Amino acid sequence: MAETAKGRGARSNATGRYEPETVEAFDDGWTDQDAEAAPLRTTLTPETARTIIAKNTSPDIGFDRSINPYKGCEHGCIYC
Fold first, then answer.
1. 3-class state of residue 19 by DSSP
2. How do residues 11-65 score in pLDDT, each as one tens digit?
3. Three-state secondary structure along the chain?
4. Is the CB of residue 63 less than 8 Å from the CB of residue 53?
């Protein structure tokens, strides 16, 4: 099995015994250019917010204002 990059998700994901499909890694001849690159550094960008209160109009939650100190990060999660 091909080695995965440390810190980039699961390092193994064995297929179940009764799964209808299996996936097997193999060398297809393409080289991985990113494997030799230096790791990316996390950057911090200070920002001044207009307000700490976030307003929302979602019918799924029972309130219309919240406090969320996060704007996002390098992971790109949809809830940040």
1. coil
2. 666 778 888 888 787 887 777 665 677 777 877 788 787 888 888 888 888 888 8
3. CCCCCCCCCCCCCCCCCCCCCCCCCCCCCCCCHHHHCCCCCCCCCCCCCCCCEEECCCCCCCCCEEECCCCCCCCCCCCC
4. no
